Amino acid sequence: MAIFLTKESKVIVQGMTGATGMKHTKLMLADGTNIVGGVNPRKAGTSVDFDGTSVPVFGSVAEAIEKTGADVSVVFVPPAFAKAAVVEAIDAEIGLAVVITEGIAVHDSAAFWAYAGSKGNKTRIIGPNCPGLITPGQSNAGIIPGDITKPGRIGLVSKSGTLTYQMMYELRDIGFSSAVGIGGDPVIGTTHIDALAAFEADPETDLIVMIGEIGGDAEERAADFIAKNVTKPVVGYVAGFTAPEGKTMGHAGAIVSGSSGTAQAKKEALEAAGVKVGKTPTETAGLARAILAG
Questions:
Q1: CA-CA distance, 118 to 18, in Å (whole number)?
Q2: How far, in Å, CA of 170 to CA of 72, rounded?
Q3: Where in the sequence is the domain holding 29, given as residue range(s)?
Q4: Is residue 100 part of an annotated ligand binding site?
Q5: With 50 as the cut, is the pLDDT of residue 252 above it?
Q6: Cis omega before residue 131 (within 30°)?
Q7: The pTM is what?
Q8: Was 182 annotated as part of a binding site?
Q9: Neighbours of 200 (CB within 10 A)
Q10: Which stretches make up the CoA-binding domain (predicted)?
Q11: Which of 1, 127, 204, 239 is the right S-S partner for 99, CB 3.0 to 4.6 Å?
Q12: Is residue 158 domain-shared with residue 282, that is, in the same domain?
């Protein structure tokens, strides 16, 4: 079992025929992802060869679902057209839309997030501005390197792409059930809390690693959820302990004022919920290792 993505998942790629889409479709296929099609209205009816694997191109998400039974879409569409692409995926009622695109206007992200809700949340959105998610040994939907870890019993949810990769590498000898990069934009689909709930329900996840960043109150809300709903051990890391007060930091667009949104405030909230929090990614990995060692 895994959360959100398994070897049975049938994946399409919106924007597959662009340079970035081509590059990462090839990498996802190499990781064993069951990619059943791409979507590009201008190239419908053609196919693309990836090292001997022929992937058909469809004119719409709805057509791709009808012809292949696809249930996951990975979106590599440029920022100006990403909202329309995600809305199309929602209208087609695909189960999961993984929005990799960086630089989508916050208004657009808010619009397609609200649109998904108005349609009954039949489409789970991960991202935007995220590395996607991977279930090692089964499927990879996004840009997470597939060769830095192995299947295991740790669940990872992270705001930061690069810290996702580092944590997977730090704990590569233990391995991961699933790793989810939720993105650091102000408006995202799947949250820390959504992933925590899924890992809590997953019988093949024994421990959860949660990575956050300064700014906002997502980590404080996650701490409250953990205290009330999560029985599995959780370890955490919050990026930004050395961030200067009042300065906008990183892709999260996080502004620190007073104690609200600071790494220290988030650390204290998580520790109050029973989460062990490291001051560095390596220290956090060590905490996870110690818990699993018993």
A1: 31
A2: 29
A3: 11-126
A4: yes
A5: no
A6: no
A7: 0.95
A8: no
A9: 18
A10: 4-104
A11: 127
A12: yes
pLDDT reported for residue 244: 67
**DSSP at 187:** S
- One domain for residues 100 and 202: no
Same structural domain, 100 and 164: no
Take residue 232 and report the two structure tokens written for it: 């599995």
Give percent of the chain above pLDDT 90: 88
d(CA 69, CA 55): 14
Q: Is 195 annotated as a binding residue?
A: no
Query: What is the number of domains present in the chain?
Result: 2
Whether 233 and 153 map to the same domain: the answer is yes
What's the confidence (pLDDT) of residue 251?
46
Question: According to the annotation, is 293 in a ligand binding site?
Answer: no
Q: Assess whether 194 and 253 both reside in one domain.
A: yes
List 24, 107, 192, 251, catalytic entry = 251
Q: Is residue 131 part of a domain?
A: no
Q: Is 17 annotated as a binding residue?
A: yes
192 classed as catalytic: no
The verdict on whether residue 102 carries a ligand-binding annotation is yes
Please give the residue that has the higher pLDDT: either 215 or 252: 215
